[in-house]
TrEMBL record:
Domain annotation Cysteine-rich: ranges: 3-84, 127-221
Organism: Namhaeicola litoreus
InterPro entries recorded: Cys_rich_dom (IPR004017)
Protein name, per record: (Fe-S)-binding protein
Alphabetized Pfam families for the sequence: CCG (PF02754)
Length: 246
């Protein structure tokens, strides 16, 4: 399996440790992983702001960079959702369809092709899982509280196989954090209130580390935590799945 590693632009610029952890996880899984050096943004910010027409060249460049790989894997549910669901603005060539159909968020990829305990990770902390909207309701990484599905969570399944990790139960476990991309810019007050509500739920539940599969949401929560100097850490799920702490 030839895997193209997609690292979203904001992770590349601000959270390189998440990118490294994702790469090391794929190497541990034994796949043939490659990082296309010409990759850029997937076009999501433009699309979210209503400028889909202006994003076409960016989306097409993404296809050109990743069209030769069997699978595309990235540590961002929202970016992967954009590729799968919003690249319909491009002519639906065989290459575009291939990229859309074979793009996976990291947890989704591991759950589909590997045993959940294969990474043999260890992380002895109390962890709270933030389930981002794009991953949960878009990619269906888990069941939603507003639907009557049989309960499941691909992220929880992976975390439950991490030695020493205690997954804490939240009161509102699949509520939005308020980031929403450009929503946090145009509706700052609402976004901040929603984020603080999520952080409070984690703190009240005894969480030491908040994790999730979408670094953009975690970035929003981390900013609020740092400003308030609250006693809680934030880590992407890739960093935890790649940990070997005792």
């Amino acid at each position: 399996m030839r895997v193209g590693l997609f690292i979203p632009c904001y992770i590349n610029q601000l959270y390189p440790k998440v990118a490294i952890a994702t790469l090391e996880i794929l190497e541990k899984l034994g796949v043939d992983v490659h990082y296309p050096m010409g990759q850029t943004c997937c076009g999501q910010p433009l699309g979210n702001s209503g400028y889909e027409e202006d994003s076409k060249a960016t989306c097409q460049l993404f296809v050109e960079n990743f069209k030769s790989y069997d699978v595309i894997v990235g540590p961002s549910g929202s970016c992967i959702y954009h590729i799968k669901k919003h690249f319909d603005i491009l002519p639906q060539t065989s290459e575009v369809k291939k990229v859309r159909e074979n793009s996976y968020e990291l947890c989704e990829f591991i759950s589909k092709y590997f045993d959940p305990g294969i990474l043999n990770a260890s992380f002895p902390f109390k962890v709270g899982l933030h389930k981002s909207c794009h991953g949960l309701r878009g990619l269906r990484l888990g069941s939603c509280s507003e639907r009557a599905d049989e309960y499941f969570s691909k992220e929880e399944q992976l975390l439950n196989h991490v030695k020493g990790l205690e997954l804490m139960t939240l009161t509102r476990k699949d509520e939005c954090c308020g980031f929403g991309g450009t929503f946090s810019v145009f509706e700052e007050a609402i976004s901040v209130k929603m984020g603080k509500d999520r952080i409070k739920d984690h703190l009240n539940s005894g969480v030491e580390v908040i994790t999730g599969a979408d670094q953009s949401c975690l970035m929003h929560l981390e900013g609020l935590i740092n400003r308030s100097q609250q006693p809680i850490k934030v880590m992407h799920i890739a960093e935890i799945l790649n940990s070997q702490l005792s």
